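To illustrate the input format used throughout this study, we show a single complete record. The first block contains the structure-token representation of the backbone; no residue identities are included at this stage. The design step must infer an amino acid for every position from geometry alone.
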């Protein structure tokens, strides 16, 4: 019996071990699924939709090749609606893929005449000529003779970007509503060979248990065989030499049982039949057990893991209940780093043209004036640098159109003496899809400022219209109202609407300071000249971002004009060193006008609230000066 069990164990062990090894070798599934496409050689932009990228579960690997200049090739991904808005009037190719039959198709999309994108404003790119094209010279491709398209490299619109050799092989997990754009620099064609690869689950959960189980059965079979061999040897006993043979006894008559009596087998033949029947019974039991187990495994399906797409607050393509935020947190961090580098380059060279790459409005006006002054006045301090991070707060606008606004607060490093500096607040605006975010306002926050409750960056905030009457003071009236307080102090009609308890700007240049300056000049120079102050609203945009309590963060640009005019013949007005550097006039027989620009951020509570408008931060400086007649 033990020999039979041992043989059965050997057979089953061999089958299990071979099956386990076969699952890891012969029957192992492929490790990846690949789809390749070739786009026309003159294609400048290739768009791959998220439906193609998510045709199979798992991380997507995008490989590109065939570019004439590998240094100019790029791969980026962004929201599908943003990618199409950036392309606007440009012709591009799309790739489609059916996972069922692995069919890959390439389609060229030609924009309609006069296409302007989603902004409603004309594209900044040069439109393709509509006249009959002149035949290209021999050896020249159509892409080389066509007008250059926009360069996608470095656009703030992309969620992530890979350039040059880094774009050769890109691994990504693109969620639904996000598309990939493959391109060159807008002049050269995009890489024409696109290969997408998805990983395949090659796990064999039964291989290891089968191999281990087979080895265990092999050990059991060996043990049974050795045990049976030992028992068989003991049963035979010791062998001894026999003496002379005994004479044969007479044979007894054979007993013949009747038909009605069943003969019970005895002796060696019965043992032999029992040994034959036992393996047969055991084989039948094993066969039945194997059939049951096989049926159980056949009916139990192994669940296939399903990838969970990255959740978003709303569909990036604009089909959700509310628009998505203009930027993500990693995207904004990358934008701030780019702004920091551009600002450092411009500040180091005092070059306003470099500053125009990333600054606009009041922020550019103040920097431009500072550069002019520093070129003539070496000891003039530079404006605060824009740090690369980290971000302490980000409030993007929730929108799917342009212009787009983003507010960010960046932590400032300690100064040269190790003293902590106030964080820097930035208001960024992206005018069109192809424009980068420009710094409109850059201010230092007030010490111990209380920032109102804001929406999380993953949701974003709405922009409040400048003429909204739902706030305690209309956003487009905040600049004039605060400017009136700076001129008239507590005599202003707006004085009771603002919380001036911790307002540092009023203490520096408010009505009291202005009266002291007028009194000092009168005492020093008598009635030979007059100093007057007036306020006006600057050209900077009014930016209003809603807060969670129905209030708003309002950015405004008031200006203050100081006019120092001669009132007595023969008298002169002496300009200060800063004013002289900016105006080019050190003294005047008539008068000098100096304009100071203010960049201010306020919290404006909702209408009917008991709270007051309070200043969150400011930046100010001389922005223009001239001699008046």
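Output of the design step:
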């Amino acid at each position: 019996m033990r020999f039979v069990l041992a043989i059965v164990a050997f057979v089953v062990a061999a089958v299990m071990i071979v099956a386990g090894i076969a699952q890891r070798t012969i029957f192992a599934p492929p490790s990846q699924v690949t789809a390749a496409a070739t786009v026309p050689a003159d294609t400048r932009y290739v768009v791959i939709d998220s439906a193609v990228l998510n045709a199979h579960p798992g991380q997507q690997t995008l490989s590109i090749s065939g570019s004439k200049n590998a240094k100019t090739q790029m791969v980026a991904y962004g929201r599908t609606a943003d990618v199409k808005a950036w392309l606007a009037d440009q012709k591009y190719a799309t790739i489609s893929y059916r996972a069922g039959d692995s069919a890959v198709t390439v389609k060229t999309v030609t924009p309609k005449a006069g296409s302007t994108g989603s902004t409603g404003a004309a594209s900044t790119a040069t439109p393709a000529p509509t006249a009959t094209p002149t035949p290209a010279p021999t050896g020249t491709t159509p892409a080389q003779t066509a007008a250059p398209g926009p360069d996608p490299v470095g656009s703030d619109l992309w969620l992530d970007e890979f350039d040059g050799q880094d774009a050769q092989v890109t691994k990504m997990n693109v969620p639904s509503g996000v598309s990939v754009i493959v391109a060159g620099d807008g002049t050269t064609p995009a890489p024409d060979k696109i290969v997408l690869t998805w990983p395949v689950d090659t796990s064999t959960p039964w291989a290891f248990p089968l191999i281990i189980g087979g080895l265990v059965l092999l050990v059991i079979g060996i043990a049974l065989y050795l045990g049976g061999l030992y028992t068989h040897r003991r049963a035979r006993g010791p062998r001894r030499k026999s003496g002379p043979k005994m004479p044969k006894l007479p044979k007894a008559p054979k007993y013949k049982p009747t038909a009605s009596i069943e003969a019970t087998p005895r002796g060696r033949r019965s043992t032999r039949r029992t040994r034959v029947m036992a393996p047969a019974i055991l084989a039948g039991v094993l066969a039945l057990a194997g059939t049951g187990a096989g049926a159980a495994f056949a009916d139990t399906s192994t669940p296939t893991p399903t990838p969970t797409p990255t959740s978003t607050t709303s569909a990036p393509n604009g089909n959700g209940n509310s628009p998505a935020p203009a930027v993500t947190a990693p995207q904004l961090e990358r934008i701030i780093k780019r702004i920091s580098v551009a600002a450092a380059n411009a500040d180091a060279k005092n070059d306003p043209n470099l500053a125009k790459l990333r600054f606009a409005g009041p922020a550019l006006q103040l920097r431009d004036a500072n550069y002019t002054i520093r070129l003539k006045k070496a000891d003039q301090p530079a404006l605060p640098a824009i740090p690369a991070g980290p971000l302490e707060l980000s409030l993007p606008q929730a929108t799917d159109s342009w212009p787009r606004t983003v507010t960010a607060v960046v932590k400032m490093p300690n100064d040269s003496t190790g003293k902590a500096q106030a964080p820097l607040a930035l208001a960024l605006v992206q005018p069109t899809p192809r424009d980068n975010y420009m710094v409109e306002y850059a201010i230092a926050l007030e010490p111990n400022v209380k920032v109102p409750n804001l929406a999380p960056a993953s949701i974003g905030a709405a922009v409040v219209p400048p003429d909204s009457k739902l706030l305690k003071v209309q956003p487009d009236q905040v600049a004039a109202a605060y400017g009136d307080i700076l001129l008239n102090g507590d005599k202003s009609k707006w004085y009771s609407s603002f919380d001036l308890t911790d307002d540092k700007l009023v203490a520096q240049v408010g009505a009291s300071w202005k009266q002291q300056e007028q009194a000092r000049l009168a005492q020093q120079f008598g009635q030979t000249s007059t100093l007057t102050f007036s306020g006006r609203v600057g050209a900077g945009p009014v930016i209003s971002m809603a807060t969670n309590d129905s209030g708003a963060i309002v950015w405004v640009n008031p200006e203050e004009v100081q006019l120092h005019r001669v009132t007595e013949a023969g008298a002169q007005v002496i300009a200060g060193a800063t004013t002289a550097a900016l105006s080019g006039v050190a003294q005047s027989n008539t008068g000098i006008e100096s304009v100071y620009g203010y960049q201010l951020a306020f919290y404006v509570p909702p209408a009917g609230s008991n709270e007051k408008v309070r200043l969150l931060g400011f930046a100010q400086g001389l922005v223009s000066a001239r001699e008046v007649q």
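Structural context for interpreting the output: The chain has three domains: 1-28+204-234, 32-113+142-199, 329-627. The chain has a mean pLDDT of 84.
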